[in-house]
Specification:
Elements: H1 2-10, H2 12-30, H3 36-53, H4 58-86, E1 97-102, E2 107-108, E3 112-124, E4 127-130, E5 134-140, E6 168-173, E7 176-178, H5 190-195, E8 199-205, E9 210-216, H6 220-237, H7 242-253, H8 261-270, H9 273-276, H10 280-293, H11 301-321, H12 326-343, H13 350-364, H14 372-392, H15 400-427, E10 430-431, H16 434-457, H17 462-487, E11 493-494, H18 501-520, H19 523-549, E12 551-555, E13 563-568, E14 571-576, H20 584-597, E15 604-607, E16 617-618, E17 622-625, E18 628-631, H21 635-639, E19 650-653, H22 659-668, E20 673-676, H23 679-693, E21 697-699, H24 700-703, E22 706-710
Parallel strand pairs: 5-8, 14-15, 18-19, 19-20, 20-21
Antiparallel strand pairs: 1-3, 1-6, 2-3, 3-4, 3-5, 6-9, 7-8, 10-11, 12-13, 12-22, 13-14, 16-17, 17-18
Helix pairs in contact: 2-4, 2-13, 3-4, 8-17, 10-11, 10-12, 11-12, 12-13, 14-15, 15-16, 15-18, 16-17, 18-19
């Protein structure tokens, strides 16, 4: 306990950070609205206790600490609420005209061009109001369409989409709509992902919905994007292309748009994906490079100040160039604290610097706290700082090469100890060979970063540039080969891991106590580790028993085919209506998150043309499973209605059915819930029958998938 108190005393920003982020997290979960009064009460208490603390009594100092923490806790809640209120989008009428600036060059998609933009002003009727909302545009790839003027719209002429670039100012008709999720269980929430970036709306623009003006703007963000494009062009001029160009662009400046999904999957499986994301490693490399280059400035305090100002400018220029990613900002702020400490000739506590940089970034944008990259970046650095010195002391080999390999491996292991619980929580899998892959890929990535700095500088010297390009090509090919080799090893990834937030906390506590036991060899630490491991085992056993006993029915929101998922324990069957699967990849996209989250074995896909199964009744018009019954009427069933059940719980309206038939079904099964699948049938039945007869119904198109939990 004394060590912990000393740590708290030496890290004042840590004392500030913890209650502040706890307040932000609790506000994000519970969404409290009345926060001003609580903040005011805490402020008054803090002012009152300040006087007591001046007495220098132990009680006064303790009360001051408690009230300070309460004030920061309430302040975190209040600021999180105010931040989201400030960034809520304003609604405009359908006839509004928006003036928007593109923040990036449009990126080619299979059928569209995608670009992020900022709304500058909105003309809604006779009023013009300024705006600063960030939105997402998808331009229809329709360069051959002849533009035509339409009454009441801006006179438009055809503008090729590839003429748009970062800084272009366009006028659009209001086609904004809220970003929505697909609505199926356990899917990745694209809506939450974009909302965390303060992007709430999206627009799909046809060729007659937008008009490019002659005005072009150049903000710092656009300026750095243009520099980034020029840097990528210099790589291309040097002779790099295809996958090698994509890997080098991702490795050096974090540009991952050209990186294919297959390669991303390989890097994730090998445990080296963090090398392709711009991170603190890049900032540290720049810091070390300029510090070594400017060694002759280490004469006195004035020259050290000049050197540190140069390093400061280089680091922040790179941060802008890399798009101000959270991991870059974290490292940049932390390095700046180190530069200040060097300038004033004081030792800098690394934990305090980390806490200070985290506090500044979270205060600037509370959403950073929930960013996976931000979390992994900080936990990786904390893991290296805390675990690595203790790991390297466990073994001190005499051979220099073995010692270097162990030092490299210990850094990777320490980083994984820091990130392991969050990786499990966010990605539900773990790369088993990360230690070995990082021993080779880590130094190789640093070598590639050094070569990337030399490529644009040597463009005028053609022979030297060719040599460096060849070395870069060889290094990237080795980098790719190593990654693919580790991916294809047996058991490269352990999937299906789903720890709760409490389990994540237990894992961190176990790691900390285990390393304390290594350092201090006290039996109390070992006993605590074993006790917490037992508790974690009980929680894991409880989850396993729950997955074995689960019974569930899922009616997916999938317009291409009617799909119902029947889950019994870890066994599951997907019922699909039709002669064949219309889109096997779409079906896999539906069921993969469910299989992963519910820890299911391989799902058996059964088509309605071959419905026999001993555990449940399945036909083109009926499904019965664990006491729940579904009726799926179609035109053939209407001619020859057969109802084999005494009761029907759900009636799925998937085709056009005459209103009298629906009325008869409602009279026959008054307790049944009618379900519409897609927008067309939903609109038809709502207008024709359901609302008129006051029938109880559910729209899958509007409400998302229907998930029914059944008793075990």
């Amino acid at each position: 306990m004394s060590d912990f108190l000393k740590f708290i005393h030496r890290t004042p920003f840590f004392r500030i950070l913890i209650p502040f982020i706890v307040g932000i997290a609790i506000q994000d979960y519970f969404q409290f609205t009345f926060l001003h009064s609580g903040l005011l009460i805490c402020l008054i208490l803090l002012i009152l206790i300040v006087g007591v603390s001046f007495w220098r009594t132990q009680k006064g100092i303790f009360l001051f600490g408690i009230c300070s923490s309460l004030f920061l806790f309430t302040g975190g809640m209040w600021w999180n609420n105010e931040y989201h209120v400030l960034h809520q989008p304003t609604e405009y009428s359908a006839n509004a005209i928006l003036c928007c600036r593109l923040n990036e060059n449009p990126q080619k998609r299979p059928k569209t061009w995608r670009s992020q933009a900022t709304i500058q002003w909105v003309k809604d009727g006779k009023t013009v109001q300024p705006s600063n909302e960030t939105v997402l545009f998808y331009f229809k790839d329709d360069s051959t369409t002849n533009e035509r003027n339409q009454a009441g719209k801006i006179p438009l002429h055809h503008t090729p989409i590839d003429s748009l670039h970062a800084g272009s100012v366009i006028l659009i008709h209001n086609r904004l709509q809220q970003i929505k999720d697909q609505g199926n269980p356990f899917e990745f929430s694209y809506r939450n992902y974009m909302n965390r970036q303060n992007i709430f709306r999206i627009a799909f623009l046809k060729t007659d919905d937008w008009f490019m003006t002659s005005r072009t703007e150049n903000t710092p963000q656009i300026y750095t994007a243009n520099i980034r494009d020029q840097l990528i062009k210099s790589f291309r001029k040097s002779g790099l292309s295809g996958r090698n160009l994509a890997v080098l662009s991702a490795l050096t400046i974090g540009y991952e748009q050209d990186l294919d999904q297959q390669m991303k999957k390989a890097f994730i499986a090998a445990g080296t994906m963090h090398l392709l994301a711009v991170s603190g490693m890049h900032v540290v490399l720049i810091y070390g490079f300029f510090k070594y280059l400017l060694f002759f400035f280490n004469r006195n305090r004035k020259t050290i100040l000049i050197r540190n100002l140069i390093i400061f400018a280089a680091i922040w220029f790179f941060s802008f160039l890399a798009g101000m990613a959270p991991s870059i900002l974290r490292a940049s702020v932390m390095i700046c604290f180190l530069l200040v400490a060097e300038t004033i000739d004081r030792n800098c506590n690394i934990y305090n610097s980390l806490a200070a940089s985290a506090f500044l970034l979270i205060f600037w944008n509370p959403n950073n706290l929930f960013n996976a990259g931000f979390q992994l970046s900080y936990t990786a650095v904390l893991g290296i700082v805390y675990y690595q010195p203790q790991l390297i002391n466990l073994w001190n080999p005499n051979n220099k090469i073995v010692r270097w390999l162990w030092a490299t491996a210990s850094v990777s292991i320490a980083a994984q100890f820091g990130t392991f619980p969050i990786v499990l929580f966010d990605f539900n899998q773990f790369p088993n060979y990360f230690i070995f892959s990082n021993i080779i890929s880590g130094p190789l990535s640093l070598f590639l970063m050094g070569l990337s700095l030399m490529l644009p500088l040597t463009l005028p010297i053609i022979p030297l540039n060719r040599l460096i390009t060849q070395l870069t090509d060889i290094a990237i090919n080795i980098f790719d080969w190593i990654t693919l080799w580790f991916e294809h090893l047996p058991g490269s990834v352990t999937p299906g891991l789903h720890p709760s937030l409490f389990s994540v906390f237990l894992l961190y506590l176990i790691f900390i106590l285990f390393f304390l036991w290594i350092k201090k060899t006290r039996s109390i630490y070992l006993f605590s580790v074993l006790s917490l491991c037992c508790l974690l085992g009980v929680l894991s056993l409880e989850d396993t028993l729950h997955s074995i006993k689960q019974n569930r029915i899922i009616l997916y929101k999938y317009t291409k085919q009617l799909t119902i998922h029947l889950i019994h324990g870890r066994q599951s069957d997907l019922l699909v209506w039709g002669n064949q699967l219309s889109d096997s990849s779409g079906i896999n996209y539906l069921i993969h998150p469910v299989e992963n989250k519910l820890n299911l074995n391989n799902t058996h896909i059964r088509l309605s043309v071959n419905p026999e199964h001993k555990d449940f009744l399945f036909s083109p018009n009926f499904v019965a499973f664990q006491g729940k019954t579904f009726l799926i009427p179609d035109t053939l069933w209407i001619k020859h209605p057969i109802i084999p059940f005494r009761k029907t719980d759900y009636i799925i309206l998937n085709t056009s059915i005459p209103p009298p038939v629906i009325e008869n079904l409602e009279k026959t099964f008054p307790k049944a819930l009618f379900i519409t699948i897609d927008h067309r049938t939903d609109l038809y039945f709502r207008k024709k029958t359901l609302n008129l007869l006051h029938i109880r119904y559910m729209s899958i198109a509007n409400s998302g998938a229907l998930s029914i939990n059944l008793p075990s």
